[in-house]
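Annex B. Sample input.
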Amino acid sequence: MNSGILADPVDLYLDATKHLCRALEAENRLLASSRNEDLTEAAALKADAAQSYESAFRVLTETEGLIEGLEEDARHALQSAAEKLERHLETNSRLLEARLESCGMVLDAVKNAATSGNDRASLGYGQNGRLTGSGTAPVALDKPL
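Annex B, continued. Sample output.
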């Protein structure tokens, strides 16, 4: 890479990009798992990494003459880092969209199950312990919908 002060913004950008890629990989693993993992910590890590990346990118692009003065290996390293980040971002976007869609489907199923019997009398127990009414049974949320 370039020597002296010109290398600092490049190294800062490369480090920030690597950190953001790691954060995206962690979140992508959670999103791709079949279990409904808590994404709070991963999302916070991704947000912090994205903020660092944005700062490093700003420094890189605002340093006058930096890009033009880079050697070929530094340019290649920047391009490779940007391409890797783009792949992780595309995967993350696809997985987030799928998770939102599946959560919406679950909410719709719960809503439909909860409201499907509202126009009928609800179930109850009579004097001798017999079921009365013609409504539907309560929704069991511990089972797949």
